[in-house]
Amino acid sequence: MLVLGIETSCDETAVGIVEDRFALRANIIASQAELHAPFGGVVPEVAARAHLAQLVPTVDHALVSAGVGLSDIDAIAVTAGPGLAGALLVGVSAAKGMALAHDVPLIGVNHLRAHVEAAQLEYGELEPPLLALVVSGGHTSIVVMDADGRFRQLGGTIDDAAGEAFDKIARFIGLGYPGGPEIDRLAQQGDPTAFAFPRAMLHDDSYDLSLSGLKTAVIRELRRLEAAGEQPDLADVAASFQEAIVDVQVAKTLRAAGAEGLDQIVLAGGVAANSRLRARFAAECEANGQRLIVPSIPLCTDNGAMVAASGANLLAAGVTSDLGLAVDPNLALAAADATA
Ligand code: KG4
Ligand code: ZN
Fold first, then answer.
1. Domain architecture of the chain: domains with CATH
2. Looking at the whole model, is its pTM more than 0.85?
3. What pLDDT does residue 264 have?
4. Which end of the chain is more exposed for a tag (fewer CB within 10 A), N or C?
5. DSSP letters of 118-133?
6. Does any ligand 1 atom lie closer than 6 A to the CB of residue 10?
């Protein structure tokens, strides 16, 4: 059973092919980063137009990569939300056309659920209950995947998403877009204790996080140094900023896992590609005897394979969409169909 997954929710035109729910057959990503870089962020209209231009070649590339033809595909999965409306519409419209033309099922997928389920391509069947930290450019959520496969949100950011904070600070210190990987690289040469940036809400009872104060603190410190005629070491700034973000995510996620009695933790989304976040979780989970499930980097950042995997799970559970499938830019993780 081959499922082709289409992802166009943001700035990657991505197509993946998954066989029998767990085997990755193709994962092709046409990044638009260069198109958006001059603007310092994703321009929705530019993204939608680029998806339209890149989608068919990316589908073709994925089919060649998997060594199959479109007629071998058993179902078309597509991200229906959350994401940019115009960008989502390109993928969903294309998926409808392909499903109709080839007379195969169409499956609308929740992008956030797909980020979590990407892990099954490397770890096999997920066995909920488990705790997931979903951290991307648009989302930062601490969620439980209950035994029935449904998601329950425990907490999340009350202002900026983690990826958004990385991207904004990167832009402020003159690094390229997307900023997360750039900060990650620069931070490796810096001292994470050089600046004492705030860890907002670290010790409160909730599982919510706030990152906008951290962003402001970094910007204020850089302006202060500049006014004093001092040259900050940007590697130290990057490392200290990153450490503050990582500290809060690790602390809150592990506290949530403890409170819920869960010993499996999934890291998902683009920020889960962060080397420091991965290393800190690896060390803490090992010390606590928790199982850490974290996909390799190409399966953390936006990709089509995760959409194919999530779609394959829905198909196996008998959940498909009709041609009336709409996009939902604000689709919540808790709204995702259960597949377990
Ligand atoms: O999941 P994703 O690819 O797209 C969304 O669904 O938003 O996440 C993109 C975000 C961007 O903000 C990017 O800067 C961040 O993930 N990111 C990283 C790293 N790689 C990507 N943030 C920190 N460290 C990284 N290595
Ligand atoms: Zn994403």
1. 2-117+303-337 (3.30.420.40), 127-298 (3.30.420.40)
2. yes
3. 98
4. N
5. TTHHHH-S--SSEEEE
6. yes
